[in-house]
Design a protein that fits this description.
The complex is a heterodimer. Chain A contains six helices and eleven strands. Chain A is an alpha+beta fold. In chain A, the strands form five sheets. Chain A has a three-stranded mixed β-sheet. In chain A, strands 2-3 form a two-stranded antiparallel ribbon. Chain A has one domain: Alpha-Beta Plaits (2-Layer Sandwich). Chain B has five domains: 48 residues, ADC-like domains (N-terminal domain of TfIIb), CATH 2.20.25.90; 203 residues, Rossmann fold; 281 residues, Dimethylsulfoxide Reductase, domain 2; 124 residues, no CATH class; 148 residues, Barwin-like endoglucanases. By secondary structure, chain B is α/β, with parallel strands linked by helices. At the A-B interface, helix 1, strand 2, strand 3, strand 5 and helix 3 of A face strand 3, helix 6, helix 7, helix 12 and helix 24 of B.
Chain lengths: 240, 964
Amino acid sequence: MTQLALVIDLNVCVGCHACVTSCKQWNTSGWAGPMADYNPYDADPTGTFFNRVQTFEVGTFPTTETVHFPKSCLHCEEPPCVPVCPTGASYKRPQDGIVLVDYDKCIGCKYCSWACPYGARELDDQQRVMKKCTLCIDRITDLSLPERERKPACVLACPTSARLFGDVHDPDSEVSVAIRERGGYQLMPEWGTKPANHYLPRQKTRIHIAPDELVRADNPLRREDLTTYTGEETIDDLAW
Amino acid sequence: MRDPTTCSDRDMGRVEVKETTCYMCACRCGIRVHLRDGEVRYIEGNPDHPLNQGVICAKGSSGIMKQYSPARLTQPLRRKAGAERGEAQFEPISWEQVFALLEERLGRIRSEDPKRLALFTGRDQMQALTGLFAKQFGTPNYAAHGGFCSVNMAAGLIYTIGGSFWEFGGPDLDRAKLFVMIGTAEDHHSNPLKIAISKLKRRGGRFVSINPIRTGYSAIADEWVPIKPGTDGALLLAVIHEIIKQGLYDRDFLVQYTNSAELVVDDPARDNHGLFYRFEMHVEEGCFDPENKLWWDPEIGAVGTHTPGADPRLLGSYTLDDGTPVKPAFQLLKDRVDAYTPEWAAGITGIPADTIRRLAHEMGVTARDQRIELPIQWTDCWDNEHASVTGNPVAFHAMRGLAAHSNGFHSIRALGILMTLLGTIDRPGGFRHKAPFPRPIPPCTKPPSGPEAVRPNSPLDGMPLGWPAKPEDLFVDEAGEPVRIDKAFSWEYPLAAHGLMHNVITNAWRGDPYPIDTLLLFMANMAWNSSMNTSAVRAMLTDKDSEGEYKIPFLVVCDSFASETVAFADLVLPDTSYLERHDVLSMLDRPISEFDGPVDSVRIPVLPPKGECKPFQDVLIELGSRLKLPAFVTESGARKYRDYPDFIVNFETSPGSGIGFLSGWRGKGGEKFLKGEPNPRQWEMYAANGCVFHYELPRSYQYMRNWNKGYLHWARAHGMTRYAEPITLNVYSEVLQRFRLAAEGKWPGRQPPERLRKRVATYFDPLPFYYEPLEGRLVDTQRYPLNALTQRPMAMYHSWDSQNAWLRQIHSHNYLFVNPRVGAANGFDDGDWIWVESPHGKVRCLCRFSEAVEPGTVWTWNAIGKAAGAWGLSPQADEARKGFLLNHLISEELPPCEAGTHISNSDPVTGQAAWFDVRVRVYKAAPGEPEISSPQFPPMPRVPGQERRRGRWQAYFAGRFRRK
């Protein structure tokens, strides 16, 4: 069975927010839109986003790591938001594992957002329905788009290609290979939600220089290795 | 709800897809704009574009909210009679009135004294036209924002290696194995750098970030090396010390391609001390460095450089046959860095000496032992055939962190020299040039040399901006005093290649060196985040003389949005958005070339202009035609160009030169490139090709271009350079020594005024040296112990998007980030309101603790704080109430010193604004103080033609939004 998902490479995410606004622009005018903005030009502007980047620091100076952490609906294989929905508005598509909300059935009761341990769902206060990432279902299933473009907007936008998209159940897919080889992990697996989205950890590259690698026989300083002499007296003039 | 898989987005309205070039920042990515029923539905990266390869950033994806922003200006406006500047009380007028008014006023200025018009632009990627207009008008008072941005980076590297970072060159991260990023403020440039860094990391390359702050790119560095601001030069000199000490330099590269082995006269008693010893040779006058210099070969003695078979010494001290004592330039460099030990630098930079040594070893050993060899044959300028191109895969990138200090020029010279010692210039895995660079050191363009260049009703004799190579190239009068309003190219800032926009308003207000009549600002927010000392500058704009007239009599502002500066205008010209205009990103300016060859691009309108908006380019063409500036009219005085697109197609730099603004599809049928007759269908051809022209050089011309005979001849034949002479890297800068000799009274020509002799003699050192930034030496650093820095966040980098409903949700206000140790020492906590105070002013703001900043530094996101009511925002918006502007703390002038009472707070070589030199202290706001940022300004009202404020909520859905 297919389970589509995002695999996010924290090793290259620079926190630029391209995924955040490319998602917004595609989805606000798409199947899952509009995505309202409150106080768009006033104090405390907020709005509906399907994807946000959180930035946090780990450690104390000078051994500080700054982590940029993009987060959206994880399209859990056991999504706790689905069984709690009293109207059946939240559902998981059997054919590709995408978790969606049917706005016509949603009554905005927020049970799903309470059930979601990841804080991935946002109530659109204007439309009074729950909204969240659809993996750009209206792009990835649109056969009129060229195949290259049948990907979520965030994946196409990401300048560092930190967002991989594919079927995590297909062991040969790009995403499965990345998870396997790079130590991809799920968020809070102890909750048993089996999130489909995974994250790839940071990796450090270091250089090791052995002491005998520092100075080689062909060191260019040897080509200049002459001590200046300007005609002063030497031992040759004195010793016998 | 319908099944999302059953119908296509394309069925939801009338769909059009148009290609153009982004302008949400200065990167200029290729974009595809999808329209639904005439409204922008989706902006995606153009996958066929060489710059962004299909990706798009947070700003590019938010173009919709810029297009439909309620901050947009839509009508020409005139300050109401009786209203004061700054009150934003305007009345609409017609474009015809605007042009009649400007024609009369500017025509009068031009016929009397053209320099009384000052034209300054915030964006500097349309300088080919704005500079042409200024020159044709006859005023030297023209520049873009480079002087307060990164001219130190441009000049420091161009005077050293003949190219620079960003548009003109960059790190080759496709092949680098070690990448060192030092002093970048999240910027310059954006998507291409992100693409490149992620590729480097995926290939297993090592990424070291040297920066006081760990954000953005630095976050994914393999190692973060925190450094105290303004001390990068000390670090780089210590690394050079260690590289030379260990013999980790590329000797062959230094000998063949740099002036390291060239013999310098070494006798302080002689007038030519410190200049290269040059033998008699017929030298054609030109802006290249003639090959009449000497090497010292141990077998033969003095020989001409590049004598076949010679193997010159880099070190030593020699006496020529005529008795002249000389040293190879490299020996002088070695002498210079002898005292710059890692231990010395550790005390200045805060970086342990062992770390400095380790970094030097990593650079040197990687460069030496991981050499790349590409099977590409090429021929050098001395007719040596090379079977391959080799590269030492250590790459660097640097920007404002080095540049925006008053010691930045020499820090950047040190960086250029380090890159050169490692043998990385225009080689794979190192630094690579982008066309039209490399250019001669320095490039040929020169400013005028005296006040006689400015004459009524005549074009300026010379270019408003250029690259001085000797004191005679300075733009000064008989007394050695400045001719330009910003004092660029005077003895105060001799190599001010980008001007000093940050001093224009202060100087014009003071009438120093003279008063002006009209200040024309394009896309420059000089009443807010683009000025130092913002509160004072705002007061200068409203200050009046004893007659009751404004000291700066007439202020014209062209902008797309109701910025803080618009409020001060006498005349407001509404510019279009980037989706509504023609534009060219020209080879005559700062194009978007790639390492493998020249690239330029265009914008083509996707939407009609909003209201009465008119592109600034069209305004200039119209004014140029009306004022009968020679470039814009025929000999009989008739208008030559219908509009900007017509101008772009038909303008040639001189009649029949074949060189115009665009390099693609030239020639009658579009069959030529770079040079060729005007092609009437050139715009169509750009449109049919994604709005971009990319010429990929033959592989043998892609590397070693400073000395690549084939490339240099090709570049000359295609009009990109005047000379096919080798561009020898200036480890030792004779150009600087010429100015120093003048200051010492040893130069036969021009000499500086007495008050500036010591300054010029000190800072025009032919070798880089470290000195504490100027302000730090003139203020009480015990009282103001901290450095304060700004960066722009990636979602706002190089943008002007506080009016953007989506982007402002990411950054609606800024904090002062401080290390928790600083908070603890000063008695405040995370989230407290605090005062940050410099010798020049104080600002109240919110603080945030961060472990990702070295404890001697505080910093904030720049230009997030806005004046109340500006940018279409409510006066209650976070930007005005919680956001703040650090600029209030930064003076545009230094405290009085030996060099003068009104010396710019800038680098003494280039005039680069020293934003990052400011020293501050921080303390908790008193209980009961209002919880809003300070200073506050009276709210700016909405101007006529600006949309009503939007409601409590807004839901954008393309095709339905405007119909609501």
